[in-house]
């Protein structure tokens, strides 16, 4: 077919997959064989093949989260051979292709591991903690209507571009999964710095950072010890610079506001 | 009896202003006495839920995703149109309106489209105020680009991730209302039925996708913002979970389904590479601003290329056919999506397609790279080029991309009146879920515009008109209709699980998708459609006798979820075929081979088919009733679309 490498041969692989019935049951690794995997398949299409085989045999398919399969919705979240989203840098699981693997490989597939991300089933985890952090302040408090003309707020292009870079976070949780402390600092900092950089976010910048950090702590995410594995494994390249901005914003807020104890 | 489309009287420029004054208002102190259900949290749903909650209504928002931020709006790349005329290039509300009606091949409602163009300017203001980081110029003001089918630069964008940034903006507004307690958020909850009481929408039945629990929810009004049905085709650019179930269930409870055969095939997608393919990937058509579309000038050259006997970069200019530039000198590579897609298909049908399957054409950036630089191209399209390279393993900076059309958007959807109310009182449909604004073909960068227009600026006004006429008394799930609907949902789930056949949901879905693509896709004819109808009926019978599932209903069971959606696709697919058969003309995305001009362009029949086909459900396996809403055009002259 029309792939990149017409000479690449189909692969046979051994999969070691985390299976767990539900949140309260203990899980474990189960081995599966998959055959005739095309190098042009995406990683999730390879799992589709496994799941179709399982279902035809009357066994329960492996549950995993996925949706857009274009690397933007942030649903997919597999820990592949010990790395969030697998071996390829800057890539979500759905955009990882089997040409990155070789015939005969054994691939270990696990869910994100973090106290704040409990397992729902098999490879699916609950990331609603991220939503609650955004609910704590990841917005500009304006209602619909009554806003000024868009061009009344000129913003220097470099500032706008930096805010955009921070805003591209897809909320997948790879940063948490890659951190030895399961810290959510990169996720939180991306939203804090997007809104701290933009004039629209200035009015609430102090309360925002205080409330979001407080919620992050409440959810049971670990502390940041500046290792940087979060940024190294982030599929969309969210920069560590954001954590520096978050720390600065947080300290400035604590030093000058009376919002929180 | 066809419901009134409720288009306000008066000149088109004044209709919306007058209507906003004439609709009834709900007293501010009474708003908290009304409950509204919003299903779906994409652009249309999140913006509606947030805006309604800001007004003071109690909102329950439902999504089958784990978070509202995952909705498929997030994948829109290119941009959002607005008639700001920031570029001083002759744009106006009227021009955006005119372009949209013409682009839709004169099968949309003038009044709705005009309103869309009017509120488009407010959307940009709203999003910027939320902190959406649109692209900017060095002077700090917003940047624009021109986009497929438009001769002015009215498209606002955030690199190739405009949908993501707009959705995160709407998600932030929604999150704020969740924090205030005005929106109660239900994640991983799938709507499986609509509940009507005395002919009015009164609530929904959902299934919790983690526990399997079937739940009843009551409200004074229900808003469906559940997206389009492109996944009927199995392979599409839609996300994997996109489905028609909520809209289809509402249809079976009385909501008319309008123009189901109007589907959009997007020209710039990455071609299919194998049978295992789970979905297709779209690349923004902004690529057509700089990329040039071509195929080899002769069949012979194309064949040599497909066999690998020659290299693409060795083909001389004279041996290339830039067919869009040749056939449409005025618009060139920027012709509307339906025209671009159909021409690519024609080239492949002529045997001049490329790639090993012959089902692809080239999109070439060599000229623009030479004229500017690879860095300049990367600045504009970097993420799209990276995505292409990741999926195909080829470097688009060095050799032209291969593209082929794929199903992308559905213009058809639940019929709604000017207030976005369906034919069921109290049930509203917004965004891609309704049929209202795009006619037979949607222009690029108009989906985001419509979703947000409906949610931020239309439904907050129009739903009040209905609620003001509904007593502010609490609603509950006490009525027997709720128990009945829940029992029906549970019985259906049981039935799916108990078939115990041999074939998986995906197996049926692929077969259906193949039928739809072959016979109800880029071009259709009566014979093929009749064949497809019979085959779909057969496939549906097989589904209900030979489906294979595993696991139980009381847990996370993704195959069971999929099966329910495929069951609905198997019914909707047949209605799409019926609609395509009824429409004996070609218009926009609906190309009937029997009706074309001598040059092979779509040939409309305005005398007989200038209507919205609104289908009314009767009973299972029975023909639906076709209701016609005549379209009248007072402001735009109907012409043969010409992009030459």
TrEMBL record, chain B:
One of its GO terms (molecular function) is flavin adenine dinucleotide binding. The keyword Membrane applies. The active site is at 337 (proton acceptor). Residues 509-643 form the Fumarate reductase/succinate dehydrogenase flavoprotein-like C-terminal domain. The keyword Oxidoreductase applies. Its EC number is 1.3.5.1. It is a peripheral membrane protein. Its cofactor is FAD. Transmembrane segments: none annotated. It is found in: Cell membrane. SUPFAM superfamilies: FAD/NAD(P)-binding domain (SSF51905), Succinate dehydrogenase/fumarate reductase flavoprotein C-terminal domain (SSF46977), Succinate dehydrogenase/fumarate reductase flavoprotein, catalytic domain (SSF56425). Belongs to the FAD-dependent oxidoreductase 2 family. FRD/SDH subfamily. This is succinate dehydrogenase. It comes from Hymenobacter rubripertinctus.
């Amino acid at each position: 077919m029309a792939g990149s490498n017409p000479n690449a041969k189909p692969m046979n692989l051994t999969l070691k997959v985390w299976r767990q019935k539900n949140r309260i049951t203990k899980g474990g690794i189960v081995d599966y064989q998959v055959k005739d995997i095309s190098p042009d398949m995406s990683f999730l299409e390879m799992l589709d093949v496994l799941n179709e085989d399982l279902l035809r045999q009357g066994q329960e398919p492996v549950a995993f989260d996925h949706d857009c399969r274009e690397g933007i919705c942030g649903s997919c979240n597999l820990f592949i051979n010990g790395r969030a989203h697998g071996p390829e840098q800057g890539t979500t699981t759905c955009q990882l292709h089997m040409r990155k693997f070789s015939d005969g490989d054994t691939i270990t597939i696990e869910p994100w591991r973090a106290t704040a991300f409990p397992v729902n089933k098999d490879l699916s985890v609950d990331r609603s903690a991220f939503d609650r952090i955004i609910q704590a302040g990841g917005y500009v408090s304006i209602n619909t209507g009554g806003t000024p003309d868009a061009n009344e707020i000129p913003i220097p292009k470099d500032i706008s571009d930096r805010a955009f870079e921070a805003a591209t976070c897809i909320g997948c949780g790879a940063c948490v999964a890659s951190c030895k402390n399961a810290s959510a600092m990169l996720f939180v900092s991306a939203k804090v710095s997007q809104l701290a950089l933009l004039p629209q976010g200035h009015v609430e910048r102090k309360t925002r950072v205080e409330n979001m950090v407080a919620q992050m702590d409440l959810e049971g995410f670990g502390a940041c010890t500046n290792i940087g594995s979060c940024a190294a494994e982030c599929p969309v390249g969210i920069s560590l610079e954001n954590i520096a901005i978050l720390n600065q914003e947080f300290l400035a807020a604590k030093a000058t506001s009376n919002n929180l104890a | 009896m066809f419901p009134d489309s409720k288009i306000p009287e008066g000149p088109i420029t004044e209709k919306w202003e007058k209507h906003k004054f004439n609709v009834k208002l709900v007293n501010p102190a009474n708003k908290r006495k009304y409950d509204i259900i919003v299903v779906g949290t994409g652009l249309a749903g999140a913006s509606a839920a947030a805006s309604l909650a800001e007004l003071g209504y109690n909102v329950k928002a439902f999504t089958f995703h784990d978070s509202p931020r995952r909705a498929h709006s997030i994948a829109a790349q290119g941009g959002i149109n607005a008639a700001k005329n920031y570029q001083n290039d002759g744009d106006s509300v009227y021009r955006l309106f005119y372009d949209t009606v013409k682009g839709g091949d004169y099968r949309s409602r003038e009044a709705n489209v005009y309103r869309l163009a009017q509120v488009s300017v407010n959307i940009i203001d709203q999003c910027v105020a939320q902190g959406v980081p649109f692209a900017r110029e060095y002077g700090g003001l917003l940047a624009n680009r021109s986009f497929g089918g438009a001769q002015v630069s009215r498209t606002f964008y955030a690199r190739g991730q405009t949908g993501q940034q707009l959705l995160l903006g709407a998600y932030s507004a929604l999150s704020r209302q969740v924090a205030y307690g005005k929106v109660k958020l239900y994640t991983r909850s799938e709507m499986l039925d609509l509940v009507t009481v005395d002919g009015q929408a009164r609530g929904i039945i959902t299934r919790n996708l983690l526990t399997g629990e079937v739940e009843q929810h009551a409200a004074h009004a229900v808003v469906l913002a559940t997206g389009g049905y492109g996944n009927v085709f199995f392979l599409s650019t839609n996300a994997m979970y996109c489905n028609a179930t909520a809209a289809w269930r509402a249809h079976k409870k009385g909501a008319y389904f309008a123009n189901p055969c109007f589907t959009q095939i997007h020209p710039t997608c990455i071609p299919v590479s194998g049978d295992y393919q789970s979905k297709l990937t779209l690349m923004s058509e902004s690529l057509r601003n700089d990329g040039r579309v071509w195929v080899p000038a002769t069949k012979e050259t194309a064949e040599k290329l497909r066999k690998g006997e020659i290299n693409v970069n060795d083909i001389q200019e004279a041996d290339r056919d830039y067919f869009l530039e040749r056939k449409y000198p005025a618009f060139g590579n920027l012709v509307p999506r339906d025209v671009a897609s159909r021409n690519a298909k024609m080239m492949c049908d002529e045997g001049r397609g490329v790639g090993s399957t012959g089902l692809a054409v080239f999109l070439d950036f060599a000229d623009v790279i030479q004229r500017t630089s690879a860095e300049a191209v990367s600045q504009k399209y970097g993420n799209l080029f990276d995505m292409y390279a990741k999926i195909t393993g080829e470097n688009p900076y060095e050799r032209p991309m291969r593209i082929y059309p794929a199903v992308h958007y559905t213009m058809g959807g639940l019929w709604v009146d000017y207030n976005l109310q369906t034919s069921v009182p109290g049930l509203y449909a917004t965004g891609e879920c309704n049929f209202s604004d795009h006619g037979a073909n949607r222009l690029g960068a108009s989906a985001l515009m419509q979703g947000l227009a409906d949610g931020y600026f239309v439904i907050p006004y129009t739903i009040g008109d209905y609620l003001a006429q509904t007593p502010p008394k609490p609603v509950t799930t006490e009525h027997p209709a709720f128990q009945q609907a829940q029992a029906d949902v549970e019985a259906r789930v049981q039935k799916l699980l108990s078939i115990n056949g041999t074939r998986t949901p995906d197996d049926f879905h692929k077969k259906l998708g193949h039928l739809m693509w072959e016979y109800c896709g880029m071009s259709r004819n009566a014979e093929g459609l009749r064949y497809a109808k019979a085959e779909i009926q057969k496939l549906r019978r097989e589904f209900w006798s030979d489906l294979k599932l595993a696991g139980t209903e009381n847990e996370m069971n993704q195959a069971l979820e999929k099966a329910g959606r495929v069951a609905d696709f198997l019914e909707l697919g047949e209605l799409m075929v019926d609609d395509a058969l009824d429409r004996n003309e070609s218009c926009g995305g609906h190309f009937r081979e029997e009706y074309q001009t001598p040059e092979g362009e779509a040939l409309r029949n305005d005398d007989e088919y200038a209507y919205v086909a609104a289908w009314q459900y009767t009973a299972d396996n029975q023909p639906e009733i076709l209701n016609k809403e005549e379209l009248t055009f007072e402001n735009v002259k109907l012409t043969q679309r010409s992009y030459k």
